[in-house]
């Protein structure tokens, strides 16, 4: 676990669009922070800069004690889940969950234990030997999340992870996400344009507008002072 600090970060795309404008935000250790706002307000760009997938035009980002501006994504101790989860189609759920750990040369017995633990948390135990094609959308998204948490990263970044699911599934996945966060306590940054999702999931919610921070507060206080 680690806090994430955004210190006056900017993003200017090559076309001249200022997607993120002097964003200052401290995400506390273990906090579930939601970035919310209308399409184009800079949420994804901000998240991608934290992940290192987008170069930062100005300012400073730190994860834990480390300034990560110049670190490649793989050298940042984070895991990401996107809306278009890419599972390996030829691998079973178990193999998908184990893949990242195998790459890191972790011993087999330890991999097995971690995979089982993640599968249990996400209700995936019955599906361990299935391939992605034989799973529902929600189950696939759970596998994507499992793959992210199994490494026990310092921070968990999610970009609209539920937006491809139908309304009913979104509601149940929200509950799963809250439970997961409660159990893991991992610092989480979650991007959505859905206000209900933001208010249900966030310990705090950061409202962005045209690349700038408009408000940041607990859901309750935002609800009381819109
Ligand atoms: P959101 O996630 O809130 O929808 P984005 O971060 O995707 O917002 O986009 C913020 C702004 O930056 C928008 O005006 C968008 O068109 C622009 N933008 C995003 N990605 C790029 C890019 N790769 N090149 C140029 N402009 C971009
Ligand atoms: P979202 O709003 O869910 O982030 P978008 O459909 O806006 O997704 O963007 C999808 C991809 O296109 C992203 O990689 C984003 O960086 C890129 N993109 C968005 N807007 C622009 C733009 N104006 N010019 C170039 N690339 C863009």
How would you describe this structure to a colleague?
- This protein is of the alpha/beta class and 226 residues long.
- 35% of the residues lie in helices and 26% in strands.
- The chain contains seven helices and ten strands.
- The strands form two sheets. Strands 6-7-8-3-9-10 form a six-stranded mixed sheet, with helices on both faces. A four-stranded antiparallel sheet has the order 2-1-4-5, covered by helices on one side.
- Strand 4 and strand 5 form a beta hairpin.
- Helix 2 crosses helix 3 and helix 3 packs across helix 4.
- The chain is globular.
- The site of one adenosine-5'-diphosphate (ADP) has 3 residues, from loops.
- GO terms for molecular function: ATP binding.
- Keywords: ATP-binding, Nucleotide-binding, Transport.
- It comes from Actinomadura fulvescens.
- This is Sn-glycerol-3-phosphate ABC transporter ATP-binding protein UgpC.
């Amino acid at each position: 676990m680690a806090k994430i600090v955004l210190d006056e970060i900017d993003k200017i795309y090559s076309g001249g669009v200022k997607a993120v404008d002097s964003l200052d935000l401290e995400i506390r250790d273990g906090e579930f922070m939601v970035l919310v706002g209308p399409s184009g307000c800079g949420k994804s760009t901000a998240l991608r800069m934290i992940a290192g997938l987008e170069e930062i035009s100005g300012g400073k980002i730190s994860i834990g004690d480390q300034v990560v501006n110049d670190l490649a994504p793989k050298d940042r101790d984070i895991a990401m889940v996107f809306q278009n989860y890419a599972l390996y189609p030829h691998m079973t759920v178990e193999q998908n969950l184990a893949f990242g750990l195998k790459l890191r040369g972790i011993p087999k017995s330890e991999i097995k234990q971690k995979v089982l633990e993640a599968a249990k948390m996400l209700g995936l135990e019955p599906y361990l030997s299935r391939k992605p094609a034989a799973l529902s959308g929600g189950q696939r998204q759970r596998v994507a999340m499992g793959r992210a948490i199994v490494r026990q990263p310092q921070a968990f970044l999610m970009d609209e992870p539920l937006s491809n699911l139908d309304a009913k599934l979104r509601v149940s996945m929200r509950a799963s996400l809250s439970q997961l966060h409660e159990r893991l306590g991992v610092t989480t940054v979650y991007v959505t344009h859905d206000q209900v999702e933001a208010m249900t999931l966030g310990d705090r919610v950061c409202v962005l507008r045209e690349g700038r921070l408009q408000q940041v507060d607990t859901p309750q206080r935002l609800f009381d002072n819109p």
